[in-house]
Amino acid sequence: MRDMGDIDPLDLVETIREGILVLTPDLTVRFANRSFCHMFAVAPEHTVGRKLNEIGDGEWDIPELRTLLETVISGRKTIEAFEVELYFPSIGQRKMLLNARAVYRPGNKTQQILLAIEDITERVRLERQHAADERIGVLLQELTHRVKNSLQFIASMITIEARSLESAEGKAALARVSRRILALGHLYSKLSQAGTFEAVDAATYLNELCRDRIGI
């Protein structure tokens, strides 16, 4: 059994799901784990040995990131949750969180940078979708409320108009129209209460119309 002290740290890095790059002080890629290569659809031989800003089509040529990495290698700070959004021809637009810190190679104490890259594209998309769905829900609730109030107002106006008629037949006709409009308003209320704008329980809806003599 191998002693833990004999295990190359890079072997452990290969088990991490985040993309990992090990950079030399001049920001040359010394190592790229499998997750990084899979995440960005690149081959190790096209990554290792190249400067960070030369990887792929130069997407990683980010002046602010380079400045931050230089402060890391000087030992002054670490990078925590630095957010970047880049476009890659092979995989499209990606949003990522970057973390970096200085590390030392066992034995010769060579200083290097461990750069971890977390792809948060899908998480951000889901968060935005959730926020959009909530916003749409609020707008639809408001629309339903406004439509219901408008229908009630129209029904009231028809009732007032019916009172001015002398014809019993005319009064009855307008009363029927008013009740049907109220029935439609009641449907909007049911949709709002059910939290859906696609379907309601027809049996409950019709029973309530008959009970309250709405639309009859």
Structure report:
The chain folds into two domains: 4-119, Beta-Lactamase; 126-211. 47% of the residues lie in helices and 19% in strands. The chain contains six helices and five strands. A hairpin with a 6-residue loop joins strand 4 and strand 5 (111-119). The N and C termini lie far apart (86 Å).
Question: What are the salient characteristics of this protein?
Answer:
19% strand; 216 residues; 2 domains; Beta-Lactamase; five-stranded antiparallel β-sheet; 47% helix; alpha+beta; 6 helices
Task: Set out the fold topology.
Elements: H1 9-13, E1 19-23, E2 29-32, H2 34-39, H3 63-73, E3 79-88, E4 92-104, E5 111-119, H4 121-163, H5 168-194, H6 202-211
Antiparallel strand pairs: 1-2, 1-5, 3-4, 4-5
Helix pairs in contact: 4-5
User: What name does CATH use for the topology of the largest domain?
Assistant: Beta-Lactamase
Main pleated sheet: 5 strands, antiparallel
Kindly report the average pLDDT value.
Answer: 80
Task: Estimate the strand proportion.
Answer: 15-25%
Q: What's the architecture of the largest domain in CATH terms?
A: 2-Layer Sandwich
The arrangement of helices and strands along the chain is: HEEHHEEEHHH
| Shape type | rod-shaped
The CATH homologous superfamily of the largest domain corresponds to: PAS domain
Computed over alpha carbons, the radius of gyration is: 33 Å
Tell how many strands the DSSP assignment holds.
5
**Into which percent range does the helicity of residues fall?**
40-55%
The residue ranges in which pLDDT falls below 50 over 5 or more consecutive positions are: none
Count the domains: 2
